[in-house]
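Here is one chain, start to finish.
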Amino acid sequence: MTTQLPLIESVNALPLSTFASLYFPDNHSYSSYTHPQSSTSYTISFHTSSTISSAELSTCFDLIATTSASTYAGSSTGWHPRKKRKEMRLPDLRYFLVKRTPDGQPEGFLSFMLTYEDGKEVIYVYEVHFAKTLRKGGLGKVLMGLVEEVGRKVGVEKAMLTVFVTNEGARRFYERLEYDVDEFSPGERKLRRGIVIVPDYVILSKSLG
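Its structure:
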């Protein structure tokens, strides 16, 4: 007798092409993007942590380092390049990779994972990073919308992400997309002698029901 895997495990076990055919838009509208200001054309490709090339992954890491290393370094988390590279190879992590056409280097990416948070089935956005050439063109909204659609089709409860408190621009962006502070986001902790510890990050979520 075959034991059926739980939802998250069964979806994460799907081949890349099967996952895309089941959960991506039928019209493949996600596969290309034109920046509205520069008119530059880009392709958007889909990868797992095992199908993305080492060179592409290295470029994605460089984007994180360029846009966020200083923020990590100033937080309680700290900036640990080796740990971040290892995280980027987590087996169930998936990537939307944005390249300038034809055959350009990656200039942006979004990574996400179907997983569990506090016992709930969720789609968790790990990283969203763009080079300056890709910013202020609506691509972040496009990719977040695609992630949310995947989550709805899979049938998870909500989309989640973590943002540093100091990254006010990112937080405003997610709030415009109707993300709110999640019930499991850490709150202030009061220590002895009235000392209050304020978390330097917040967990945001959006219901997909």
